[in-house]
Amino acid sequence: MIKALFATPALFLLALLPQTPSAPDAAANPPLVIPAAAAAVPNPVKSTPENQAFAKKVYGYDCAMCHGPKGDGKGEMVDSMKLTMKDFSNPATLSGRTDGELFWVIKNGVGQMPGETGRQTDAQIWAMVHYVRGFSK
Ligand code: HEC
């Protein structure tokens, strides 16, 4: 019993020792692993002037601070959060991605990017996929 009382604080101190820091880049951009089933889902929502106007508004609130108002990855948070961003205005950037993949990332997030789950409906997120693709058109 007395031994146990002395052992516990020792373990606690061990936990406080500095951990080996991980590379900052790896923390900011973890590999994007999208389930194959999610990637195969086609976009069930057609682009309309109404849903694109809504997507533009939400993008301004929830996305532009990182991805930039033009989708070029030059958002105002990028430096302070040490983010490495892609340029969505370059057609090559998202050409290899399916709509299902973009939907999955926007819904679930990746690394320091929060997902839109609970903020937008699935239909609104599908409409946002069209909006994000529009940056390279
Ligand atoms: C806190 C910063 C941040 C916010 C806010 C954010 N993102 Fe991201 N997003 C990232 C980072 C970092 C990545 C990974 C690097 C990259 O793809 O640019 C990423 C990746 C993505 C990708 C995947 C790109 C690829 O690799 O194919 C999409 C699509 C995307 N974001 C869209 C959005 C949309 C739409 C919103 C708003 C609903 C949003 N993001 C909000 C930081 C952010």
UniProtKB/TrEMBL annotation:
<dbReference type="InterPro" id="IPR036909">
    <property type="entry name" value="Cyt_c-like_dom_sf"/>
</dbReference>
<keyword id="KW-0479">Metal-binding</keyword>
<keyword id="KW-0732">Signal</keyword>
<keyword id="KW-0349">Heme</keyword>
<dbReference type="Pfam" id="PF13442">
    <property type="entry name" value="Cytochrome_CBB3"/>
</dbReference>
<dbReference type="GO" id="GO:0009055">
    <property type="term" value="F:electron transfer activity"/>
</dbReference>
<keyword id="KW-0408">Iron</keyword>
<dbReference type="InterPro" id="IPR009056">
    <property type="entry name" value="Cyt_c-like_dom"/>
</dbReference>
<dbReference type="GO" id="GO:0020037">
    <property type="term" value="F:heme binding"/>
</dbReference>
<feature type="domain" description="Cytochrome c">
    <location>
        <begin position="50"/>
        <end position="136"/>
    </location>
</feature>
<dbReference type="GO" id="GO:0046872">
    <property type="term" value="F:metal ion binding"/>
</dbReference>
<feature type="signal peptide">
    <location>
        <begin position="1"/>
        <end position="23"/>
    </location>
</feature>
<protein>
    <submittedName>
        <fullName>Cytochrome C oxidase, cbb3-type, subunit III</fullName>
    </submittedName>
</protein>
